[in-house]
Amino acid sequence: MEKLRPCLQGARVLVTDPVDDLLLEALRAVGAQVDYRPGISRGELLALVPRYEALVVRSRTRVDREVLERAGNLLVVARAGVGLDNVDLEAARERKVRVVNAPGAATQSVAELTIALMIAAARRLRESMELASRGVWKKVVGVELYGKTLAVVGFGRIGRRVAEIARAIGMDIIAYDVVDIRGHAEKLGARVAEDLHSALAEADVVTLHVPLTPDTYHLMSWEEFKAMKRGSILVNTSRGAVVDSEALLWALNEGVVATAALDVLEHEPPATEAEKRLAQHPRVILTTHIGASTVEAQRRVAIETVRRLLEALAEARGCSR
Fold it and tell me: Which terms are listed as keywords in the entry (predicted)?
């Protein structure tokens, strides 16, 4: 990156969400002028963004068409994380704004949380912990994951890592994706489902690892829950809007889903009546979107994001590497 220093000297970068100090230090090391404003309001962002050539965000800040239209000098948007659903990619393309992210940096951390939530759901840990906190020493009987069938919906980096760990536990893996995953599945000893509903019908546990797109919005809704095996477990560490909260609430109350373990909701914190009821439901384990929130993942995210950001910014400024 030192070779890029002459090109990036004085580049103005706005960072609007909390990031690892490593990212900030790397930007300053090449001479960029960094304005670190985690928690900046929408109004402040719209007022300030015209001054900057690069914008760094995580999940909170929405880089929509309005923001991009205000950002007359913007060359690069960097999402310090995996997904890009909070960036209007079409509007960015129209304005020739490059968009970069760190797709592989959080794989291990999200996979580990997925397995942890799976185990917590199987062993009914929320119920047991709540009893213990009240001084009630009552045994809560769960189930083992060994020998159970896990449907991995979305067989990308994270889905494959989850499948690898689950195989080590002794689970049978069935994988589903809209792209050809036969090669990856064969390497991991997983079976490939012909369609989503057939995977859901066979699984004792369903884990979701798909990006949020128009095609995956409410991917898990009424018909999908009706297709699931009765008494199964649902885990979602991908994007909240992949699951229809009202349909999930119905599935829980009908006993179709025994336990839902969720790291994400469509609105965070819960905003709709269904989401609030899910958060309070005795058979829902809910965490606060912590999939990538480990020291190790955040450092990998910082390293990968800053590398991609600086390369894109140098290219956009017309500098040769």
Answer: NAD, Oxidoreductase
